[in-house]
Amino acid sequence: MDIVGLLKTMTLVEKLGQLSQYASAWLDTSLDSPLTGPKSQIKLTDEEYTAIGSTFSFKNATVMKKLQEQHLKNDPKKIPLLFMDNVVHGYRTIYPVPLGMSATFDVELVEECCAMAAKEAVTAGVHVTFAPMVDVSRDARWGRCVESAGEDPYLNSEMGRAQVRGYQGNMDPSKNIAACVKHYAAYGQAEAGRDYNTTDMSERTLRDFYLPAYQATVDEDVRMVMTSFNALNGVPSSGNKWLVKDILRDEWGFDGVVISDFKAFDEMRTHGYCETESDCAEKAMNATSDIEMMSACYFRTIPALIEQGKLSMQQIDEAVLRVLKLKEELGLFENPYSFASEEESEKVCLCAEHRALAKKAVVKSAVLLKNENILPFDKNKAKRIAVIGPFGDYNGLDQWACRGRNEDVVTVLQGIKNLLPNKEIVFARGCGDEINATDCSDIEAAVATAKSCDTVILCVGERADFSCEGKSRMELRLSKAQKTLINEIVKVNKNTAVVLYTGRPLVLTDCIDDMPALMTAWLPGTEGGNAIAELLFGDENFSGKLSMTFPRSEGQLPISYNAYKTGRPLLNEDNWARGFVSCYFDMPNTPLFSFGYGLSYTDFEISVPEINKTEMNSGETLTVSVKVKNIGKRNGETVLQLYICDEFASLVRPIKELKGFKKIELKPNEERAVSFEITEDMLKFWSANGKFEAESGSFRVWVSDVSTATENVRFVFSK
What we know:
With 719 residues, the chain is of the alpha/beta class. It is 29% helix and 18% strand. The strands form six sheets. It has an eight-stranded parallel beta sheet with strand order 9-6-5-4-3-2-1-10. A six-stranded mixed beta sheet has the order 11-16-15-14-12-13, with helices on both faces. Strands 19-27-26-21-22 form a five-stranded mixed beta sheet. The radius of gyration is 26 Å and the shape is globular.
């Protein structure tokens, strides 16, 4: 398709249509009424309505084909619609939420799951997914940390890369979809953890912690970027020329499509950054933001802005060309209905192969947080099993589970029955799942059930709709009813394991002592119950590691393992109440569970790290090695994590930073040497010179299976 020639024939309205996106319900003429549709809500003309270039959130292949047919019939240029959707952690077969997937520390598994999701989405006519989300998240109060890979920039970068590779593959429209990284930039550090709130930080913190993951996906050739709702240092991202044009496009070389989040162009007025729709359009276009989602600033005001000389036709053409180029790459001009097929969708979605992969993802993402010789449960000794708690038979899916259906979800109760069909299995809800549930009237019956059983699986946590957009929480604790349930159940049956359903780290300080064993299943998706059952009864082993710190209290937030060093650090955590150092007077600095933490059914012995040389010059590499031995009685996997600290620099540096990880599996008594190569790039940071560079000096290195490791070695780097 000659898209440059096509562009020359287009009217200005047709061009602006390619830069405008509305929800699919607004485009369906059969649904249009005085109360619905863009023509009534934002007063589009018929010509503008016909010119719309993309849509999102449509139900299935039937709807996609209907809307495409309707559009092509009315559009004189016959430019196909681009169809987008939130394929965040599965399309119909739903695997764990991204925060859970990052706990796998397994980029190959993440890539495989995204490829599976793309394969299903293609059959419904999806061309672009609004994923991955790589917003570094250090504040568990923020509801959208569920969509991220947690608190670490390197882990977010690697998980973001893996998702882009999985979704996009080699961009074969028959099995791949384009990825759209979001939310650019620093949306995960909204002040006070309150969604949509402002973000204010120094450029060095932005460069060191918050921008690397976006850049990593650009390096992986992600096709689209979505700007964030928040203002960054006083400038809303959609109109932030420094952020979008100067850094994303000019510095990083991104030449793909930039799209706003829902109505974010027009919300620049609410921010108080723009006074009129015209101001919004001018700032967004000058920032090189291409597609406007769910508002009409471009349609309404760009013709006048061009007449006034405030914008040029060249700017519009460059933006439109980027959109047309993406449509061409996706093969829409040759095949506007792409590979949407109701029959193929029925065949592919929820097939046995995809369910098996989703179950594997749950197994690898689950994290064993505590185990007082309770787990794994002995199948032979378990005669009567109680599944108790508001999440024992819970099949809820989160906001970003795309077209997943609750009825397809395997609950813990169902999973235990599937695994142990000949056992007596009973269920008691115990209490409600409301965020502030206080009704304890059903606990007595649950206690009687637990007392009559030899094995108890107690399922607590937060509902899927408590961890999502717009669901920031001030308190991150279990409800009074759930805490009472835990306490009363364990009093009568010590052989109890707690399964935690959550989309964020929770504060468990006031109930952790009551839990003989605790695992977090996150929000596990379609195959959650089957995988959890196999983990609890030892058919599978735990290997997940936390990608986000579990705090002792909300007062510690935001919290992360890689905080900047301070002049008065608390050197002895046993003396946390002393004064005149950086500490709390009423609580230790340490979290309840640290980044990188996670137990197994076996134990690993890791040697003190060794390096092949103590001096490293610019352009050279250095190798650090450890020996890892499985000293337990069963096969197991662990994640070796490489951390580096720049001891002295032109700017204060973090205590330590993750720079690599490797997942290894060992048999009992098996020992293996594991090594990491340290490069100069790993030592670089945004220096006092205002650029990324490695500075000469001494560095410390840790290799362990948790961020709190103490054994380290030192080397000196020279430029």
